[in-house]
């Protein structure tokens, strides 16, 4: 009997490998996204604290030089928050693209699995037909041999 051979097995394996790679990349992006959220939260908290401190210092009559330095620091923090938010949007977009790509790959993989099942069923049916033919021929030959003896 012949062994079952699925011609698209390499394609199926390739799809499986791509799914693994993209899933790993998605996991990395989720981790990066979480780190960015924490970074943004910390930056916003720091910015809020500096702004509150700056107001207290203005009321208390702080030196102009200190206020100017504090304003520069506030601008730097504001820019850092904006850059982190931009990076967050970029990561969100990449996650969405990767998710769509994974869904497409998963759909293709399922199609290949169904095709494999269908071909395997056809193979089994063909093997059963061949086996039945052999059994029928064996029965007929045995019957002929009994008649002769």
Characterise this structure.
There is one protein chain. Helix 1 (9-60) runs antiparallel to helix 2. By secondary structure, the protein is an all-alpha fold. 92% of the residues lie in helices and 0% in strands. The protein has helices spanning 9-60, 64-148. It has a domain at 9-112. It is built from two helices and no strands. The model has no long low-confidence stretch (mean pLDDT 89).
Q: What is the secondary structure topology, with strand pairs?
A:
Layout: H1 9-60, H2 64-148
Q: What are the salient characteristics of this protein?
A:
149 residues; rod-shaped; mainly alpha
Q: Let me know the number of strands.
A: 0
Please mark out the parts with pLDDT under 50 across 5 or more consecutive residues, or reply none.
none
Distance between the termini: 32 Å
* Mean pLDDT across every amino acid position: 89
Q: Report the helical percentage.
A: over 70%
Question: What's this model, at a glance?
Answer:
The protein has helices at residues 9-60, 64-148. The protein is an all-alpha fold.
């Amino acid at each position: 009997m012949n062994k079952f051979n699925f011609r698209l097995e390499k394609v199926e394996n390739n799809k499986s490998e791509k799914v693994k790679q993209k899933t790993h990349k998605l996991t990395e992006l989720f981790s990066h996204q979480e780190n960015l959220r924490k970074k943004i939260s910390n930056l916003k908290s720091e910015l809020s604290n500096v702004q509150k401190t700056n107001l207290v210092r203005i009321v208390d009559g702080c030196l102009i030089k200190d206020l100017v330095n504090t304003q520069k620091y506030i601008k730097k923090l504001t820019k850092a928050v904006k850059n982190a938010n931009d990076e967050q949007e970029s990561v969100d977009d990449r996650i969405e693209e990767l998710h769509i790509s994974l869904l497409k790959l998963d759909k293709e993989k399922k199609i290949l699995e169904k095709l494999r099942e269908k071909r395997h069923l056809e193979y089994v049916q063909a093997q059963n037909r061949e086996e039945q033919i052999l059994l029928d021929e064996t029965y007929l030959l045995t019957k002929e041999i009994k008649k002769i003896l």
